[in-house]
């Protein structure tokens, strides 16, 4: 069985290829591209791209390279299968994720990119602990500091984790990290960056070998 990629896409008869341009800049940066993000954020972004809106996603895993090892050789392409009672499974190809990288440095560069307008995170509750340079709060603060120093505008930073008042929690952590990173950064963030809260009530089961067959 051939692996899915941009090069093999033409032979995939069971899924519809993305009809939008995947080569442009990505306005959405997502930190923590696990199953939940791929099953929800990636699908919604793909819907927007198919409707003609710029919603390409630049994904970055802060620590574990597994996502990059899986999606990198596939050029970010993957499939999502929806299973419901009394209905046949439905599989769709998702093409909104156009690049994937690993590491805090890659995350800082992605947040600081002038094309970035929205930063989303799924990092689990434990991911909000700590404010060091290798933590989620630390890399977001560092990326925002780079934007500030270059005279770029702010962004929307949104937690998608199942955490009460997740926007407030994320904002507090990023401001703590900013206080230790650079004078005046926290004030700039408060003036230019928004941290909306979200509500999560869905799960995405981990992919199994049977799913890939």
Shape: globular
CA radius of gyration is 18 Å
CATH class: Alpha Beta
| Strand arrangement in the largest pleated sheet | 5-2-1-6-7
What features would you describe in this structure?
The protein has helices at 35-39, 41-50, 66-71, 104-112, 136-150, 166-181, 185-192, 209-212, and strands at residues 28-31, 57-61, 78-82, 90-94, 97-102, 118-121, 156-159. It is built from eight helices and seven strands; from the N terminus they run βααβαβββαβαβααα. By secondary structure, it is an alpha/beta fold. Helices cover 34% and strands 15% of the residues. 38% of the residues are buried. Strands 5-2-1-6-7 form a five-stranded parallel beta sheet. A two-stranded antiparallel sheet has the order 3-4. The termini are close together. The protein has a single domain (24-198), classed as Rossmann fold (3-Layer(aba) Sandwich).
């Amino acid at each position: 069985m051939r692996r899915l990629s941009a090069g093999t896409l033409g032979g995939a008869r069971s899924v519809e290829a993305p009809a939008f341009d995947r080569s442009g800049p990505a306005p959405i940066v997502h930190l923590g591209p696990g199953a939940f993000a791929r099953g929800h954020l990636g699908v919604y972004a793909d819907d927007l791209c198919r409707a003609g809106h710029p919603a390409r996603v630049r994904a970055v895993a802060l620590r574990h390279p597994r996502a990059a090892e899986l999606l990198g050789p596939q050029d970010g392409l993957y499939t999502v299968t929806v299973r419901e009672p009394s209905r046949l499974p439905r599989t769709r190809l998702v093409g909104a994720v156009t690049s994937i990288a690993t590491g805090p440095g890659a995350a800082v560069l992605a947040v600081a990119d002038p094309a970035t307008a929205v930063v989303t995170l799924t990092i689990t509750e434990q991911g909000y602990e700590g404010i060091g340079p290798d933590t989620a709060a630390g890399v977001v603060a560092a990326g925002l500091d780079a934007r500030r120093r270059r005279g770029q505008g702010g962004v929307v930073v949104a937690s998608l984790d199942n955490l009460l008042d997740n926007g407030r929690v994320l904002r507090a952590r990023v401001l703590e990290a900013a206080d230790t990173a650079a004078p005046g950064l926290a004030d700039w963030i408060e003036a230019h960056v928004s941290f909306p809260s979200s509500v999560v009530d869905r799960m995405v089961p981990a992919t199994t070998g049977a799913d890939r067959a």
